[in-house]
Amino acid sequence: MNKFLRIAPAMLVLVALVVSLLPAGVTFANDTEFTFTANYRQDVPVQVDGSSSAEISTLDPALADDVVSINPIENLYLGLTDVDTITGGINAELATSWEVSEDGTVWTFNLRNDVMWVRYDPATGEAEALRPVVAGDFVYGIQRACDSRLGSYYGSIAATVVAGCDVAFFTPVEEMTDELAFGDTVGVSAPDDQTVVIELQFAAGYFFSMSSMWMLRPMYREGIEEYGDEFFTPGNIVTNGPFFLEENVRGVRRVFVRNNDLPADLYGGDGNIERIVTTVIEDAGTTFALYQDNQLDSSGVPPAERQQILADPEYADQVHAIYDNAVAYFSFAYDKPPFDNVHARRAFSAIIDREAFVQQIRQGLGVPMIHFTPPSMFGAPPINEVGIGFDPEYAAAELAEAGYPNCEGFPNIDMITQSGTGTWAEFWAAAAEQYLGCDPSLINVEQLEFSVYLTATSADTPTQDRANTWNALWGPDYQDANNWVGDVLSCHVENRQKRPCDEVDDLIDQAARESDPDARIELYAEIEEALFGAEGTFPIAPIYLRFGYTLYKPWYTGPFETDGSVGGIHYGAYTIDMAAKLAARG
Q1: What is the reported pTM?
Q2: Which terminus in the chain has less CB density within 10 A, N or C?
């Protein structure tokens, strides 16, 4: 096949460089034809070079419960709806339209018919279209998430709202059968290939905003049944989204390539990215050095150099301030002493000076939080108007009430932190010494790589192997207070604290079912007070609302400040000026 030769912008840079190296006096006649071979050709993909200190824990939409996994899943699998990259509103995706019954309990989604299941072969770079995505794939995907044998955290969240999902999810594993999982138990059905019907347990006003979530996405049943756990590996995985998985090597890198045959309106934006390469780099200093050398397109801002970078005109168009609605906290294990005692939990929450924590540990990057739901979510109380916060006298009295006056007899406690956050534990131990009289050596700290940390803090981990406390961060999946107090702290989900049910769960259920928005707001304020007020149960100790700076090269553009603030980011919304990038690399 013949092709017209067109010199791309980056090739023009190379032509200029070659000409500049020719001997003086050399000229070309107007009719001279010449060819040359270059390292950069027209068919070199537009590539983002990034880094991550964390490993992907899973690419299974039913099992993913962390942002490191959810971001790639967002680009591998399309769902019913999608979160807008700018506004955070809900857009159509595989569903073209939807209706809800008069009583609000039955949602009917009408699907498009032009999206295929595709298997990408990394060895050949070829993609094979297998068959269209149909309504039955949604039925299977949702049923699978509700299957108790899978043990999905977000399956427990679906079980709070989807009819019958609770029955399947809470059936003991030894009693679970394929008929129960994939029969008529779960309230999801496909009257035809282009219609998905989801029945709810009640008229959940927030369900539509949940419809973009990953555990409700379609799955390719034939592949899962053929490959089992090996389905989600390069060469085996079958996807329907804007990108394919090319490589995923733990400790090395992961690579995603663009699905060029997808309808143009399903990429999540008008970006030009063809290849995403993320190298695993644990050291932030190394990442920044590679960014300075133009080998990476983005980087965090090292704390020690932040003031210099913010004041440097060279970085003025590269620094982006990111407010991501994520709340950081310490989490308590209810299943072992001493934090099985509410007074101990209250004491260790009240010794945290959040203002000092933000300044000393976060170098000012954050907003102190004494309750859980951040102000941008529906139903959130006014920031820091509910909750006990920093109160050393209250803390000392509560620790005495727990049976440890002046910390006498307080046991050693184990704390798990994510890599690079050991200073959190040091701050907490110093506060325990200053305000409670505890020996700081009582807190034993273990820093773990992120995917290992997730396993170690799982509710499924045996009590004797679990830490007493750990640090954590929660960002929104949908913009409602239920996503915070309900999906993280309710006793009806697989909460990592192993928190048993009490009166606050009745309030959480009541708020979820309430149809009056004003009444819901009042209920959520009451819930936050019951959790974090003077008589609160304190399953966690909220600390701060995250804010930070990220560096992006001038040739890398997109909705950095807004995309992914709810759900995952969209690779298709970003653009690389490849000519400028290659020119900067020399």
Answers
A1: 0.87
A2: N
